[in-house]
Amino acid sequence: MMNSVPTQADERQRKAVALISGGLDSLLAARVMLEQGIHVEGINFFTGFCVEGHTHAIRKKDRAKPKRNNALWVAEQLGIKLHIVDVIEEYKSVLLNPSHGYGANMNPCLDCKGFMVHKALDWIREHNFDFIITGEVMGQRPMSQRKDTMPVVARESGAGDLLLRPLCAQHLPPTLPEREGWVDRDKLLDFSGRSRKPQMALAAEYGFEDYATPAGGCCFLTDANYSRKLVDMWQARGNREYELDDIMLLKVGRHVRPSPRFKLIIAREEGEVKFLQGYAYRYPTLKVTSHSGPIALLDGTPTQDDVQLAARIVARFSKGRNADQVTVDLHLPGDDQAQQLVVTPMPPEQISESWYI
Amino acid sequence: MANFQLDARRLLCPMPVIRTQDRVAELRTGDELTITCTDPGAAQDIPAWCRLNGHTVLSIEHDGDELMITVQVGTES
């Protein structure tokens, strides 16, 4: 798509919005544009599946580590504004019906990128900005950053030649900002492939030493374990609807499904105990009271026998695992009184490996 | 100038920032907003967002696992 140029001579400073993930590539792309005198502001879309910070915020062992939102940190390094946009609801249609399918796991990367660029296009129209930049590098990602799919993102997002990828622009046809001389194409880059060395060299040149390098990208949907839990949740429920709490809970605890009717989410440490306790208003919870032990959420429609089985499993993960009897409190949402269950902890050999999601 | 409250408990990064951002957009310069959070990352993220957007963090108080962050809205909201 070729976009039109304003007819009046216009020497104002051009404005670009940069898709900021918090990783190195978008940091560098924005920095390259700032160097060319472009006014840059960042935009970060929160889908609910972003790796950013969640499990670090939950698990106690990670609480001693300094925490930061990498997108905010990148914006601070660049000295630009950052707009964080909640797209959780809109993103559902991208995840559930990706026209280009999924990657290795439940990651709809090509549709996702098109969606985000389209949202950025809406944003620049609303805020009177001139173009969009991303940190994409040709050949870096197997789905959305290939020579044949990068034009698909530009076309299907509607951004067309308002989408500039500064790190690999030399491999792509000139965009409107380049043709109009808003940016100097000769100073744009020709990165390609999966090697990170050119980006690291450029980062060193700019003096960036501390930047995020998340393995597998910044999205839980690229993670095989997470994707398996997501698919399991959909299968168990018989539909693919989800809320933010559902997809947050997939990131926490040990997930054990002994029956199609229910699964257990068992806290693995103190931070997860506190986090899962926050869901007691919504889920039945099991808590070992006769011994030190975890809390577990019961998700699904368990029968009375299922609840007994669940209590035995939770007891297995308590300090009373070798005791003859363990007391487990069952709390139902909205009920102040706990029901006491006295159970024998399940022997480890009876807990099937296939129960672990 | 008025004081406002925002309950961001149980929300994890970056939702407390998003809720703060959206609420601040509705307020006037000089207004104060106290955000109650349980995500410890908010103690870094909300001040970072304020620095980027011209707002001032007046205080950060801890009460058990809860954080109360009070922000004064700057001129750029």
Outline:
The complex is a heterodimer of chains A (357) and B (77). Chain A is an alpha/beta fold.
Question: What's the CATH class of the largest domain in chain A, please?
Answer: Alpha Beta
- Main sheet of chain A: which strands, in order across? 6-7-9-8-10-11
Unreliable sequence segments of chain A: none
Order of strands, main sheet of chain B, comes to 1-2-4-3
Rounded to the nearest angstrom, the distance between the terminal CA atoms of chain B is: 14 Å
Main β sheet profile of chain A:
6 strands, antiparallel
**What is the CATH homologous superfamily assignment of chain B?**
TusA-like domain
Q: Biggest interface, and residues per chain?
A: A-B, 30 and 21 residues
Oligomer designation: heterodimer
Remind me, CATH topology of chain B? Answer: Translation Initiation Factor IF3
Tell me what portion of residues of chain B adopts beta-strand conformation. 35-45%
Anisotropy-based shape of chain A: elongated
